[in-house]
């Protein structure tokens, strides 16, 4: 039987309960394993004796390994290429943002360097968004909750992680059970990531949006909208045809009513497709009854497979001006980070320097839809 990740909280909890051992030992085990990457289970002090053979026979301290660490020239982005136990690869990206560089009330913001980790939830993705190289890989498999949490474990050994965004490879809501289990682990001891600093990004899987707040209170929701009308939206994201825009907006209304949280709207800027002034007005009218932050994402070309091109800088700024100036909607333009290591928005598809593509799927550079700070 294949050994499971010790960070698969559901499996670990089940085994401990079956053996009549308190699950309150789980945080102690995790803390020791995080602090001692190469440890054996029998080195963990102060556990009941019955726990050691159980851990050794069913679990591993880490089922994934960091194959490659790539540092960006911008000194803010680090990409981890993570090898899973089945031999597949996913990517996790650390972005460090110095909050003191921002301006708040005319003065530099308080704080310091804050790190955000972008995690993957699937190998590949079945959603096939036309701007996304992960989508071009097709779907390979879901990650277990332990494999998701292990990305945080690996990243935490590089720097302290403050924020988590589920914007790496895969549609997290298509792996909902593992997503919920992983987030609950990240919120708990010893990780203690505030749920308000965790953001789940989705193309709009309505049944999951409806239950997200009940399952994970205070966690943020980001929605890849990308167009103010259903026809254009479906051209950019073919799977959006499954749910009408009206159904999506109603699900967002209910989410916001229950959570009282602002919703992040992701909008990739595609030249001549969704970036006209008229579309900016339509987008604002669609969202005017919501509390949202719109994040305009300059498109990263992903090679010959891409049928899209990047909006002009002036076009992006004009779009932002309409949303902000005319409708007073908070709108940011995502800063590009880590393009040289394919860690920027829309660039997460696994590539191993000097090894070609382990998925054998494409010569396309990596991609996925990345972060806000
Ligand atoms: S943007 Fe996200 S949901 Fe769409 S294909 Fe890429 S990974 Fe999947």
Keywords:
373 residues; two-stranded parallel sheet; 11 helices; binds iron/sulfur cluster; S-adenosyl-L-methionine; rRNA processing
Can you describe this structure?
With 373 residues, this protein is an alpha/beta fold. Helices cover 31% and strands 20% of the residues. The chain is built from eleven helices and 16 strands. The chain has helices at residues 9-18, 26-35, 51-58, 133-137, 145-156, 176-187, 206-215, 230-236, 245-259, 277-287, 313-326; strands at residues 4-5, 59-60, 65-71, 77-83, 89-98, 103-104, 107-108, 113-118, 122-124, 139-142, 163-166, 198-202, 220-224, 263-269, 292-298, 331-333. Strands 3-4-5-8-11-12-13-14-15-16 form a ten-stranded mixed beta sheet, with helices on one face. A two-stranded parallel ribbon has the order 1-2. The protein is elongated and about 70 Å long. The two termini are 41 Å apart. Bound molecules: iron/sulfur cluster. Iron/sulfur cluster is lined by residues 125, 127-129, 132, 134-135, 169-171, 203, 368-369.
Give the gist of this structure.
With 373 residues, the chain is α/β, with parallel strands linked by helices. The protein is built from eleven helices and 16 strands. Helix 5 packs parallel to helix 6, helix 7 packs parallel to helix 9 and helix 10 runs parallel beside helix 11.
């Amino acid at each position: 039987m294949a050994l499971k990740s010790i960070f698969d909280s559901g499996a670990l909890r089940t085994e401990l309960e079956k053996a009549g051992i308190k699950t309150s030992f789980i945080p102690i085990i995790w803390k020791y394993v995080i602090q001692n990457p190469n440890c054996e289970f029998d080195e963990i002090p102060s556990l009941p004796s019955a726990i050691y053979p159980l851990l050794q026979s069913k679990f591993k301290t880490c089922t994934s390994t960091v194959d490659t660490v790539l540092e960006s020239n911008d000194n803010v982005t680090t990409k981890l290429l993570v090898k899973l136990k089945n031999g597949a690869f996913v990517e996790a990206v650390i972005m460090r943002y110095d909050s003191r560089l921002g301006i708040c009330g005319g003065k530099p913001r308080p704080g310091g360097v804050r790190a955000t980790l972008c995690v993957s939830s699937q190998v590949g993705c079945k959603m096939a968004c036309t701007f996304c190289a992960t989508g071009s890989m097709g779907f390979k498999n879901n990650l277990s909750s332990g494999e998701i949490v292990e990305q945080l474990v690996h990243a935490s050994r590089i720097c302290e992680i403050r924020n988590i965004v589920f914007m790496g490879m895969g549609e997290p809501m298509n792996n909902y059970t593992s997503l919920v289990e992983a987030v609950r682990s990240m919120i708990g001891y010893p990780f203690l990531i505030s749920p308000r600093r965790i953001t789940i990004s989705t193309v709009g899987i309505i049944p999951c949006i409806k239950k997200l707040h009940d399952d994970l209170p205070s966690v943020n929701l980001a929605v890849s909208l990308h167009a103010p009308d259903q026809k254009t939206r479906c051209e950019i994201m073919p799977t959006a045809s499954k749910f009408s825009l009206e159904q999506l907006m109603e699900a967002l209304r209910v989410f916001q009513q229950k959570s009282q949280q602002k919703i992040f709207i992701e909008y990739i800027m595609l030249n001549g497709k969704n970036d006209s002034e008229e579309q900016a007005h339509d987008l604002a009218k669609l969202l005017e009854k919501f509390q949202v932050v719109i994040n305009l994402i300059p498109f990263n070309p992903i090679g010959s497979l891409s049928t899209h091109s990047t909006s002009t800088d002036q076009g992006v700024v004009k779009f932002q001006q309409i949303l902000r100036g005319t409708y007073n909607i908070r709108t940011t333009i995502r800063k590009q980070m880590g393009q040289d290591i394919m860690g920027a928005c829309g660039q997460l598809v696994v590539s191993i320097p000097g090894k070609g593509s382990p998925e054998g799927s494409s010569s396309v550079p990596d991609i996925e839809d990345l972060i806000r700070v």
